Amino acid sequence: MKKITTLLLLCLLTLGATAQNAKRQVAIFHCTGDNGNTMTAFDIDSIDKIKFITLENFNITLAQVAVTDASVKVSFSPTDKVKSATYYLDAAPDIVYTQTCDGSSWERTWTDLQPSTTVTVYCTIEDEYGITKTVTLALTTQAAPAQQAAKVGDYFYADGTWSTTRHQGKTVVGIVFSTTPTDKDKAKGFTNGYAMAIKSLTDKAKWSNQSYAEFESGAYASLTDKGYITDRDGYTHSTTLIEGITSSVQHDAALSATQLSKPRALSGSNSGWYLPSMGQMIDIMVNLGGLSTDSITHNETANTGTWKGLAKTAINNLNARLNPVGGTLFSTSSAQYIWTSSESTARSAYYLYMNYGTDISTLTYYKTTEFEVRPVVAF
After folding, report:
1. With 90 as the cut, is the pLDDT of residue 63 above it?
2. Three-state secondary-structure class, residue 299
3. DSSP labels for 124-144?
4. N or C: which end of the chain has fewer CB atoms below 10 A?
5. Domain boundary residue, one of 115, 140, 165
């Protein structure tokens, strides 16, 4: 009798609404047992047959599997009474995961976290009667390693850092193609180099909606012999173009390049995405594509140049870097036309022509034409 009285006193008997499933209707009694997790379900589907169902070991264990300076990996081990779990990380509360449970364990990794930061996993489990329980686990990311000098071919990440060996806890958004910033970019604080976005924009864009607009970007690369090779001030050109946008003047290629910051947000000290100059596109072909400026056939009259028969080599080398990180590959089946921010005349601007199996050329065309956009970033 004493045990029965004690049990009755310990039971909270908070009946509330009845829980239902496809087979029966039950009333739930929340009881505090020795193990702290015992509940009793009273079957009221057939009142003449009193039936108690004891739910024991209704729990889930969260455990740290691995932690880096930018990621955490957690294991989830539910008991067999758990039917589903909903969980999220407080550093990314909008991303909620749902798991149907059968007693098996699983793991989840969260990436792109800040170093030396404590984050918490919140996991709410539910049983067949609708009973819920929330379990948490706090973890602290490691301190960030010292940032090394950038090298051509390094991975550039969404947090504005870079590394030679790929960091599995970070999102790759670019590939470093130069470590020689211009004086103008150094003056803006971008002293490490440049990275090409692994993604190109989905939609093509016009360089300008004006068929004749003199000195829109502040300089003509065509005024200097082989100026298309040496013009590396794409950020300055792009900034000027964007600042020149009005209700009637549009510079869509330069503006659209900056939009890559929305799905591929950058933090840290960098310029954000912008439309590269012709010289920067050439650096990409040379430093990542394996070509040489010495092999360019220069057209003195048009102030343009061509790598004859070398497109296949460059595209294969570029795609070998892009493919492992889920990048937008350069085409091996059709010609591509990619805008730069370098002007040639009031009517035309430079673009890169790539035709797999034949040539890569630096050419000029009317600004009102729609071409592709492949952004870069200075850092």
Report:
1. yes
2. strand
3. EEE-TTS-EEEEEEEEEPPPP
4. N
5. 140
Whether residue 108 lies inside any domain: the answer is yes
What single-letter DSSP state applies at residue 301? T
Residues 6+ apart with CB under 8 A from 267: 158, 159, 160
Residue-range definition of the domain harbouring residue 64: 60-140
Instruction: Give Dmax (Cα) for the chain.
Output: 107
Nearest to 323 by CA among 154, 199, 177: 199
Distance of CA 6 to the CA centre of its chain: 57
- Please state the rounded mean pLDDT for residues 124-146: 94
* Stated pTM of the model: 0.77
The three-point CA angle 152-155-160 to 5° equals 110
pLDDT, average across residues 277-297? 97
SS3 call for 356: coil
Sheet (strand 25-30) strand order: 19-20, 25-30, 39-43, 51-55
